[in-house]
Amino acid sequence: MDDEQKAARTRELARQIWEAEGRPDGHSARHWHMAERLVAAEVEAAQYDQEASR
């Protein structure tokens, strides 16, 4: 996943988190941070899967 894909995925997840929490105001930084952590976990899992399949 390149940087552009990571940014797009982070935006998507942050929006989903915001919506799941009822669209609260003033929590965008927390939602963004949560999304970044999820994307990092997805990237790590994909790398692990690639290495395991070799």
Topology:
Blueprint: H1 3-20, H2 28-52
Helix pairs in contact: 1-2
Walk me through this protein's architecture.
This protein starts with a helix and ends with a helix. The protein is elongated and about 45 Å long. It is an all-alpha fold. The longest helix is centred in the C-terminal third of the chain and has 25 residues, at 28-52. The protein is 80% helix and 0% strand. The protein contains two helices and no strands.
Strand content: under 5%
Instruction: Give me the Rg, rounded.
Output: 13 Å
Binned, the helix content reads over 70%
What are the secondary-structure elements, in order, as H or E?
Answer: HH
Organism: Stenotrophomonas aracearum
Protein name: DUF2934 domain-containing protein
Pfam families: DUF2934
